[in-house]
Structure formats: C-alpha cells, structure tokens
C-alpha cells in the first residue's frame, strides 16, 4: 500500500528540508499548468499536495508513521498450520496427546462408578433373597433355653 513517503519519493527518516525539496520537484513536474488537459496531472498534484501537508507537520507525520507500523504488523502472514500426522500412531501418541488420555480415562472411571452404583441400587440384596440357614446343633446345645436341637446342614 503506497504511503505519503512513496508519493513524494523520500525515505521515512527524511528531514523536513528533504521533504520540501521533493515536493517542489514533483510539483513542478506534475503541475496541471505544465500539462494542460491531462486529468492524471490533476490527480497526481492532489496526491502530492496531500502528502506534503501530512509530512510537513510533525504531529501528522508521527500519526502517519504510526499508521504505517500498524498496517505492516497486520499485513504479516499468519504462521503456517502444523502439518498433519504421517500415521495414526503419530496422532494417538500418548506423549503428545496425554490430555485426551486423561480425559477419557477419567470419564471411563466415572461411568463405571455410576453404572456400578445403579446396578447395586436396582438389584436386591442377595442375602435377603435366600432363606435363613438353620443353626447347628452345637450352637443350639450351647444355648440350653432353646430345648430343641436340629441337626446341622453341614456335617463335618
């Protein structure tokens, strides 16, 4: 994008005297009186006058320099994207993608815990679903108040 320095054909660090000399030289060359009927001469002279107005004023010149710096910073190309992995192992390698492994491992543990809790809540207790075992004779003999003895289911 052309700047006022380009219009006057001077360097960015040109002195005010150098800017004035460049303006006079271009004004004499492109003045509409020296090129009657040339529409481009009128446009060129308007651009030269605008450039000189800005570059001859120190404050406006500083603003113009700031605009140039900002424009050059935004026009820098964006950094290139990282290339795609060559194979599936490069994509799934734990050293580079450990956060995904951590996330999915945590989710697996959480889902397993929830599923186990739901299963244990939905299923009745196993001890309650079977009839109570009869006490052994040795147990009953130790308690004389009961008076009756029943043989043990398990003979040893």
Describe how the helices and strands are arranged.
Blueprint: H1 4-8, H2 16-30, H3 39-56, H4 58-74, H5 88-92, H6 98-122, H7 126-129, H8 137-142
Can you tell me about this structure?
- By secondary structure, this protein is an all-alpha fold.
- Among the domains are: 4-74, DnaJ domain (Helix Hairpins, Orthogonal Bundle), CATH 1.10.287; 88-124.
- Helices cover 61% and strands 0% of the residues.
- The protein contains eight helices and no strands.
- It starts with a helix and ends in a 14-residue tail after the last helix.
- The model has no long low-confidence stretch (mean pLDDT 82).
Q: What's the helix count?
A: 8
Beta-strand portion reads: under 5%
Using the alpha-carbon principal axes, give the shape.
rod-shaped
SSE class: mainly alpha
What is the chain-wise order of helices and strands? HHHHHHHH
- In total, the number of strands is 0
Q: End-to-end distance, in Å?
A: 103 Å
Largest sheet descriptor: none
Helix content: 55-70%
| CATH-assigned homologous superfamily of one domain | DnaJ domain
Parts with pLDDT < 50 across at least 5 consecutive residues: none
Q: Just name the CATH architecture of one domain.
A: Orthogonal Bundle
If you average the pLDDT, what whole number results?
82
Rg from alpha-carbon coordinates: 47 Å
According to CATH, the fold-level topology of one domain is Helix Hairpins
| Name of the level-1 CATH class of one domain | Mainly Alpha
């Amino acid at each position: 994008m052309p700047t006022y320095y380009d219009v006057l054909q001077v360097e960015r660090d040109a002195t005010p005297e150098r800017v004035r000399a460049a303006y006079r030289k271009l004004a004499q060359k492109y003045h509409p009186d020296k090129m009657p009927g040339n529409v481009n001469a009128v446009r060129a002279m308007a651009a030269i006058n605008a450039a000189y107005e800005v570059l001859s004023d120190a404050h406006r010149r500083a603003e113009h320099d700031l605009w140039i710096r900002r424009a050059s910073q935004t026009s820098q190309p964006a950094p290139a994207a990282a290339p795609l992995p060559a194979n599936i192992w490069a994509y799934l390698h734990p050293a580079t993608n450990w956060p995904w492994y951590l996330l999915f491992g945590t989710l697996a543990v959480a889902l397993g815990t929830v599923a186990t809790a739901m299963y244990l809540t939905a299923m009745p207790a196993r001890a309650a679903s079977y009839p109570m075992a009869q006490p052994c004779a040795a147990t009953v003999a130790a308690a004389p108040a009961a008076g009756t003895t029943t043989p043990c289911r398990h003979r040893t």
